[in-house]
Design goal:
The chain is α+β, with helices and mostly antiparallel strands and about 80 residues long. It is built from 2 helices and 3 strands; from the N terminus they run H-E-E-H-E. A 3-stranded mixed sheet has the order 1-2-3.
Length: about 80
């Protein structure tokens, strides 16, 4: 899959999960996709949540890898 198609798929997946993150008082923003890594910003209640690493590594990463096998990891850029 080419980079632009992957970025569009990532954005689509983020839009699908955004309502669930919003229900907990947070939000997620796509920053970029580079060398197999998705860069995001977790904001709101998610920006300083103690479960942030678990959410990223156990939830988001598995979902993204299932849809886009080229994804190697997710990096949260602190605000």
């Amino acid at each position: 899959m080419e980079k632009n198609a992957m970025e569009e798929k990532i954005k689509e997946l983020i839009e699908n999960i955004r309502p669930y993150i919003n229900m907990d008082g947070g939000d997620i923003e796509f920053v970029k996709f580079e060398e197999g890594y998705i860069y995001i910003k977790l904001t709101g209640a998610c920006s300083n949540c103690l479960g942030q690493d678990s959410t990223i590594n156990d939830g988001l990463l598995e979902m993204f890898k299932e849809e886009i096998p080229e994804v190697e990891g997710i990096i949260n850029i602190p605000i």
